[in-house]
Design goal:
With 315 residues, this protein is mainly β. It has helices at residues 2-17, 27-43, 134-146; strands at 47-60, 65-78, 81-92, 102-111, 116-120, 125-129, 167-176, 179-190, 198-207, 213-223, 231-242, 248-260, 267-277, 282-283, 302-305, 310-313. It has a 16-stranded mixed sheet that branches.
């Protein structure tokens, strides 16, 4: 797998460096190489473990912070097994009611390859299900956040992977922090019977020499229930490092999501997010078996078992 990825990179680097037209890749050939390299990188990630911190700040249109929430994760995965703990801390209260700052949630979760277990420590509540039930959806929402580098070249939430009529093309190249990147664009149109069609564009700046990692991403939209033209809705910048054996993945992801007026396109607010992977975070290192031990619910825990359609309290 690693040899194949290095071979792809060597072919691509040679093509980009060539000046003769006989050696130049077409955009279609370049796209094929980039997509194949990205998929190989993702498929080569088999396990990982470490701490991940997520800071969410809501800002007004002028950039002043209105509220801030921090999530602290301990994250372990190997094959089809995943275990994590999460603490949610309200750093700066915001909104109409302004709840007090401090610890707001503490959870443990386990995916054992068949079932999903979730324990809300503060609420003394447990949930058992599968990846297709509420338990799975709850844990997956965290995994999409802290495991974003596992999904490769796709829409930020993975939703564009199987959209009918999706168009993928190379739109050019550009330097990002001194690294020459290939720009790949995903575009598609959502069609609705009772409203206007909505167009989407997602662009990714891919560093082909560093594991086909995405150093920058931007997304735009137009149409739908809005009268505005093509509008930037979000952007992110990523710092990466070599985790070993040629696997490049993020150490820090900084993103902004823009909330704009649908009629005037005026900026209303900004969601600023920083995802930071601990310096000791490891990829493709053996994860101790004890990290995936069964999740036991303490006495008194109220449990909802979605697979058995039953609720009970642990004695």
């Amino acid at each position: 797998m690693i040899a194949n990825r290095k071979k792809l990179c060597a072919i691509l680097c040679l093509a980009l460096a060539s000046v003769g037209p006989a050696y130049a890749l077409t955009n279609e050939e370049l796209l094929e190489l980039v997509l194949a390299g990205s998929k190989q990188t993702v498929s080569s990630i088999k396990s990982g473990m470490g701490k991940v911190t997520v800071d969410d700040t809501r800002k007004d249109a002028s950039g002043v912070a209105e509220s801030e929430t921090q999530f602290a994760f301990e994250y372990y995965f190997s094959g089809d097994k995943t275990a994590l703990t999460m603490e949610q801390i309200l750093v700066k209260p915001g909104g109409q009611y302004k709840p007090p700052a401090g610890l707001k949630a503490k959870e443990r979760a386990l995916i054992d390859g068949q079932k999903v277990y979730v324990l809300s420590v503060i609420d003394n509540y447990g949930l058992i299900g599968s990846l297709a039930t509420d338990a799975g959806h709850h844990v997956t929402s965290f995994l999409r956040l802290i495991g974003i580098w596992k999904r490769g070249l796709s829409a930020p939430d993975g939703s564009a992977d199987n959209i009918p009529g999706r168009i993928i093309r190379v739109t050019g190249s550009e330097s990002v922090n001194g690294r020459q990147c290939v720009i790949v664009e995903f575009s598609w149109t959502d069609k609705y019977a009772d409203s206007k069609d909505t167009q989407h564009w997602h662009s990714y700046w891919i560093d082909t020499e560093r594991g086909y990692s995405t150093l920058r991403a931007r997304s735009w939209y137009a149409g739908g229930d809005t009268s505005i033209s093509k509008t930037l809705e979000g952007e992110s910048n990523t710092e990466v490092k070599d985790y070993g054996n040629g696997i490049w993945a993020p150490t820090k992801i900084t993103s902004d999501t823009y909330n704009v007026d649908l009629k005037t396109a005026d900026l209303k607010s900004i969601k600023h997010r920083v995802i930071t992977y601990d310096l000791e975070f490891k990829i493709n290192q053996p994860v101790p078996d004890e990290k995936f031990l069964p999740l036991e619910f303490p006495s008194g825990t109220r449990v909802s078992d979605e697979l058995l359609n039953a609720t009970y309290t642990v004695p």
